[in-house]
Amino acid sequence: MSKFWERVFYLGCFITQGSSYISAYTYGLMHRLHHAHTDKPEDPHSPHNDPNPFLMMWTTRTNYFHLYIGKTDAPEKYKKNLPDWESFDRFAHNYITRLIWIGVYIAIYALLATAWWQWLFLPATIIMGSLQGMAVNWWAHKFGYENYSMANTSKNILPVDFLFWGEAYHNNHHKHPQRPNNASRWFEWDMGFQTMRMLHKLRIIRIRNTA
Questions:
Q1: Are 155 and 140 in contact (CB under 8 A)?
Q2: 10 Å Cβ neighbour count for 52?
Q3: pLDDT averaged over the chain?
Q4: Which region, left, alpha or beta, applies to residue 77 given φ > 0 means left and ψ of -120 to 50 means alpha?
Q5: How many alpha carbons fall within 13 Å on the CB side of residue 204?
Q6: Which PANTHER family is this protein grouped with (predicted)?
């Protein structure tokens, strides 16, 4: 996509992720390292390296922040063509901004909650991004089915991915990491890819590999 649309999507991520906002550049870098070292000690987030999903979340957080602040460096080949808006990340990616988002969530709950037990969902709202990451990166290396036999534990969580917009097809994605469509079999449906097709037709993005 063009630099203009890249920044539009940066703003969209900030609005929709809120207190869970993470740097697209840093996460893209971490994701590439995950593919390069899947289930090995160098993997930044693998259930193979931690005994439970909560420890994996903490390991993921630590590895992510070490990459973000530059404490951990990665080879240049993993940094190529990643989205980058450093000045915006400095604004969106700090504890003051996260606390403001939490205040917004509390105000929304105060306005809309009709019973005390609904407030129990507030912590999940605050860390929703981490929960989604745990679901994909833990479950998809623990439970599910495999279309492809590989030297890693990646699996497809759902036969019809109506929750994660194609990310549940983790085994397919590890087999074909450069393919925008994560669906492989006739019953699999990647809603994320269908959205990309629509954006491609609108000339907002350009899909280079449709194979």
A1: yes
A2: 9
A3: 92
A4: alpha
A5: 11
A6: ACYL-COA DESATURASE, DESATURASE 1, ISOFORM A-RELATED
Contact 170, 157 (CB under 8 A): yes
Amino acid present at 187? F
* Alpha carbons within 13 A on the beta-carbon side of 208: 2
Cα 188 to Cα 156: distance, rounded to the nearest angstrom: 10
* pLDDT of residue 209 exceeding 80: no
Q: What percent of the chain has pLDDT over 90?
A: 78
Q: Where are the alpha helices (DSSP H) in the chain?
A: 3-17, 24-36, 53-69, 86-92, 95-112, 122-126, 128-134, 170-175, 191-201
| Beta-carbon count within 10 A of 173 CB | 22
Integer Cα distance of 75 and 73 in angstroms: 7
Across 132-140, average pLDDT: 86
**pLDDT value of residue 114:** 96
- 169 forms beta bridges with 156
- Name the nearest CA neighbour of 3 among 84, 78, 68, 79: 84
Asked whether the predicted pLDDT for residue 147 surpasses 80, the reply is yes
Cα distances from 151 to residues 87, 113, 155, 164, in angstroms, run 39, 47, 12, 24
Give the model's pLDDT for residue 95: 93
